[in-house]
Amino acid sequence: MKPAVFLGALVALLGSTTAARLHHKAHNLDSQIVVQDSSEKDQAALLQPAEYTDAAKQNSIHSPPSNNLDAILVDIDEFDQSGDAGPFAHHSPHPKFNVGSKSSQWAIAYVPYTDDLNCKSRDAIQTDVATIAQKGFTTIRLYATDCSALKLVGSAAKSHNLNLILGVHIDDPTITHAQSQIDDIIAWADGNWDSVEMIVIGNEAIFNEFVTPNHLADFIANARPTLRRAGYTGPVTTTEPISTLHENVALLCPVIDIAAANIHPFFHADVSAEMAGAYVADQLEQVEGICPGLQAVNLETGWPSQGMANGEAVPGVMEQMLAVTNIMKSAGGRSVFLGFGNDGWKDEGEFGVEQSWGCMNIFRNV
Predict the structure, then answer these.
(1) Could you give the CA distance from residue 107 to residue 141 in angstroms, rounded to a whole number?
(2) Is the pLDDT of residue 146 over 90?
(3) 2: buried, middle or exposed (CB in 10 Å: 19+, 13-18, 0-12)?
(4) Cβ distance 337 to 140 under 8 Å?
(5) How far apart are CA 152 and CA 122, in angstroms?
(6) Cα 122 to Cα 117: distance, rounded to the nearest angstrom
(7) CA pseudo-torsion sign 189, 120, 181, 161
(8) How far apart are CA 262 and CA 274, in angstroms?
């Protein structure tokens, strides 16, 4: 059954109204984007995304709690299958991948943390995943392997026939524990990769200056064949703001299988909730042009339910419902919604919105 959204209260009320670590930031683009604003008598609005603020940059998106993992420095100097060493000997053709959903609903972002930043219990995770399935999602995005996420979320997802987008978290220049996460993923899968739709190595790691573009590209180039040898045949990618992808085309496009970005309309001061769907769709068109031949996806998007206004971008319960509904209509089949629930463990952030992105209540059971 096709997923639906509660719209009754939305229509009635909107008639009279118009991450510590999960912080979101607006994306700075070199180009301009024309977005149709139906609330302005269909007059085209020329949007130019705002820059990330320095304050927000201090808080990375979805950085999990640090684990006391042994530092594993990765040797990433060799990759060419012909035997020639070199960090950029990885320009082989990409296999064609196609992820997402043909419907208006695909994936939800999930972090297995309580409001006090402890790991959720097995029972809590099983209940959460059951809710995700009931709401009509087909895929769950994870950001890291901590809190036994592979085992607990993985087993719960399998019981509900849900797919996974697995994350390898990177938060330091030496990528000290990224390889251990690759090893954890391979050991968990044990040759059975049926439920893994995509693997994402790094979440805005370049933008947050956790790693250099060269280092990240080399690590992905090394990780891809390692995962292939372990039996994984699906896409491997990373996700950044669109401007960061654009600035690093020569490094990133040859080593990724999917062109991915995190697209947050709220952090553009000229984008209202009503314009969010058109904004995301236009941004996805830009992502498609960055790495020609690769499918483009939006790996994180949504709208906050409370906080302070960012120009025309006003947070609120009904505004969130309107924005999410419009994103679903315009790009829901290629977007990961943020997120499963509100996150009391985050700092409130510049606009006081960082705890308030949970949007599961918007989606109806199917």
Answers:
(1) 7
(2) yes
(3) exposed
(4) no
(5) 6
(6) 15
(7) positive
(8) 19
Alpha carbon of 84 to those of 27, 239, 318: distances in Å?
Answer: 38, 28, 57
φ/ψ region of 191 (left if φ > 0, alpha if ψ in -120 to 50, else beta) reads: left
Task: Say whether 312 is catalytic.
Answer: no
Does 7 or 223 have the greater pLDDT score?
A: 223
187-192 long-range contacts, CB within 8 A, separation 24+: 188/145, 188/150, 188/151, 188/154, 189/230, 189/231, 189/232, 191/230, 191/231
Short-list 106, 138, 107, 120, CA closest to 64: 120
Q: Of 240, 274, 300, 350, which one is the catalytic site residue?
A: 300
Distance of CA 11 to the CA centre of its chain: 29
Whether 300 sits among the annotated catalytic residues: the reply is: yes
Under 8 Å CB-to-CB from 128, ≥6 apart: which residues?
110, 120, 156, 340, 341
Beta bridge partners of 164: 140, 196
pLDDT tens, 228-267? 999 999 999 999 999 999 999 999 999 999 999 999 999 9
What's the rounded Cα separation, in Å, for the pair 132 and 147?
Answer: 19
Task: Please identify which of the residues 197, 204, 240, 274 carries the catalytic annotation.
Answer: 204
Q: Which secondary structure element, helix H or strand E, spans residue 33, and what is its range?
A: strand 33-37
Range from 8-12, 151-155, 338-342 carrying the lowest mean pLDDT:
8-12
Task: Give the integer Cα–Cα distance in Å for 26 and 109.
Answer: 19
Q: What are the CA-CA distances from residue 124 to residues 51, 100, 196, 285 (Å)?
A: 38, 27, 22, 38
Q: Could you tell me the end-to-end alpha-carbon distance of the chain, in angstroms, rounded to an integer?
A: 6
Distance CA 317, CA 256 (A): 37
Tell me how many degrees the CA angle 279-314-362 measures, rounded to the nearest 5: 75
